[in-house]
């Protein structure tokens, strides 16, 4: 990079960072309390509207970033662990046994939020 007063040589080391946390206490501190107990109302997710509503027992979050000479890769995932969820009534199986593309899309705006590929698959998928 050049400036009026000379040249700047910047060096960035290769690095990788992984972060993992359980966020239930953080979310409760922000005022999200009903989702974690008997006041939770997730019945809209159930086929049987008379069944007891499940509630969130954990919120797990993980992020990772890797910077190398080839570029930067980053990913994040947050998962809610529900307690008391009703079983699924029908089972369907999909075997992704060759490379594929996947997307997470906001269905209200049709905006892609995350796009990725899986290219290296195990020899056998159970």
Automatic annotation (TrEMBL):
Residue ranges of domain Serpin in the record: 8-120
Gene3D superfamilies: Antithrombin, subunit I, domain 2, Serpins superfamily
Entry superkingdom: Bacteria
Recorded GO MF terms: serine-type endopeptidase inhibitor activity
Pfam families: Serpin (PF00079)
TM ranges: none
A GO CC term attached to the entry: extracellular space
Protein name: Serpin domain-containing protein
Species: Ruminococcus difficilis
